[in-house]
Model the fold of this input.
Amino acid sequence: MDNSAILHLITGVVLSVLAFLGYQKLIGPRYCAFALLPILLALEQFSAAIIIISVQYPSLFFLNDFFTLLLVILSQVIWPIWVPFALQRMEVTWSIRKVLNFFIYLGIVVALLTTWDIIFYNVEVHIVEDHLYFVQPIRGFFQKFGVYLWITTTVLPAFIAYTRRVWLFGGVLAVAYTYIIYQNHNDFIFFTPLLAVALAVAVYVVLLEVKIEDEGIQLNI
Done:
């Protein structure tokens, strides 16, 4: 098995462990959606590993189309809706929740644009020097302008929300997007193993800080 496939598999396991550790820090159901973000990242990494394996082993190539579609749906359709939704669920300030609702609606628009591209434009998988890239020969709506809406709807809410330390998650997202766009190989935004782990760690830190703050409030009471 190729080293890059192994790396994605190991990353998927690490993300799953971080998701479990984050779940242990939950203090209420309103944090569940945020705690599930590492699971989405883990599914992306497992999908990437299977895609690489299917390309390298012709007998398994029948898996390629399904897991390519799954990865694109996870990263481009579900992610831009889930992130602002998760942040909105954690927010306790009514006015901020209303603002974050706007980003949820914006995420739905981005998801619809991406869905249109998935239906009408083919996505090709390129493996260059052990790196996985997703390219559309014909550039759709998302690649022309939707990517900027995608970034806006997932980054800005983290800097608007009042939840403790959630800006750290937004900062890691901003760095990750900057790196991906700088590389300029992907028509779809896909997190590398290192970036995915960094995001999962940021999620864990936020959940840990919220739990510590909640325990402090209970002690004061």
